[in-house]
From TrEMBL:
SUPFAM superfamilies: Zn-dependent exopeptidases. PANTHER family: BLL3975 PROTEIN (PTHR37326:SF1). This is Succinylglutamate desuccinylase/aspartoacylase family protein. It holds the Pfam family AstE_AspA_cat. Keywords: Hydrolase, Metal-binding, Zinc. One of its GO terms (molecular function) is hydrolase activity, acting on ester bonds. InterPro entries: AstE_AspA_cat, N-alpha-Ac-DABA-like, N-alpha-Ac-DABA_deacetylase. Its cofactor is Zn(2+). Residues 40-224 form the Succinylglutamate desuccinylase/Aspartoacylase catalytic domain. The keyword Oxidoreductase does not apply. It comes from the Bacteria.
Length: 323
């Protein structure tokens, strides 16, 4: 599926990922980088599955430049942008097929542009590692607190206790517990024997320096602790993460079209009934907004970044503190 891809090749190898989906008008080269240095842990770092989640792609491209074979023990595969057709057009999803890549796993080797990339990741890359680190961000639509979560299964060499340790090693302020979805990258990989960590943070349609730094430091801390990198981050990070559950009830959805005004800051701790946001009408004679109140106590983890929201879209969600 990608000529010349040899995950066992010693040292550092960089190939053009877009060779998997040839013939897309104007698409520029993008990269998959494999770094091997003897025996050790095997990790995939993957970003840009949603094309407009750019903090992840910035950090992973830096790491492709910086990390040399002597910095690695085992194997590190870095894919800064697994969805080049979306990313290079400034979009969350690929314009060729309009699919959300993070709902296309395990993919189709002979399918659409997005499905072919998913199949490459699932069928060819996943078997080369024990741990997938899938790096997301808020993108154009949301602002998100820095948080990590993860999944494993009986098929993986990393059990639940080890996964908890990996999540802690990130030094992030929040660890989220959410039900896995098999059609996502991080949900599909444990079913294929590869435990996963998913990262969130940043967003809001613009890169913020501090969010890039948090993401980069977390990855460096986590990969050093896991043993695949010999150097880590300079900052120690949070010594104790806040653990939160996110279930369906934590999501506050728009019941009609309108204009979003958040009434609490991202990361705020709220009680049941607190006013989270108001949705102002975008038409008609009345200016009366609809109030969105917290369905339970928790921390505001994610907020809609755009003015306008459509019926059924997420306004914000909270995480319920774990006892
Ligand atoms: Zn995403």
């Amino acid at each position: 599926m990608l000529d010349g891809f040899n995950p066992d090749a010693p040292g550092k190898t960089i190939l053009d990922l877009t060779a998997i989906t040839p013939g897309i008008d104007g698409l520029q080269e993008d990269v998959i980088c494999t770094i091997n240095n003897g025996e050790g842990p095997r990790v995939i770092l993957c970003g840009g599955i949603h094309g407009d989640e750019y903090e992840a792609q910035i950090v992973l491209r830096q790491l492709v430049n910086e990390i040399q074979p002597q910095d690695v023990r085992g194997r590190l595969i870095i894919i800064p942008t697994i969805n080049p057709s979306a990313s290079q057009r400034g979009q969350r999803i690929s314009p060729e097929d309009g699919q959300n890549m993070n709902r296309t796993f395990p993919g189709k080797a002979e399918g659409s542009v997005t499905e072919r990339m998913s199949a490459f990741l699932h069928d060819v890359v996943f078997p080369q590692a024990d741990l997938l680190v899938d790096v997301h961000a808020g993108g154009g639509d949301y602002n998100v607190v820095p948080m990590v979560f993860g999944f494993t299964s009986d098929k993986c060499s990393i059990d639940n206790a080890a996964l908890e340790g990996i999540l802690d090693s990130w030094g992030y302020p929040y660890i989220e517990y959410v039900e896995g979805i098999a059609s996502t990258s991080a949900g599909a990989s444990p079913l294929a024997g590869v435990a996963s960590v998913e990262i969130e943070g940043g967003g809001g349609g613009a890169v913020r320096t501090e969010e890039v730094a948090i993401m980069r430091d977390g990855i460096l801390r986590g990969l050093k602790a896991y043993g695949v990198l010999t150097k880590g981050a300079e900052s120690p990070g949070n010594s104790t993460a806040i653990r939160v559950d996110v279930r369906k009830d934590n999501n506050h959805m728009a019941e009609g079209d309108g204009i979003v005004e958040h009434r609490v800051p991202l990361g705020a701790e709220v009680a049941t009934g607190d006013l989270l946001a108001v949705i102002h009408p975008a038409h008609g004679r009345t200016g009366t907004p609809v109030e969105i109140r917290a369905k339970g106590p928790g921390i505001v983890l994610r907020q809609r970044a755009r003015f306008f929201i459509r019926k059924g879209e997420l306004i914000c969600n909270t995480g319920t503190l774990r006892a």
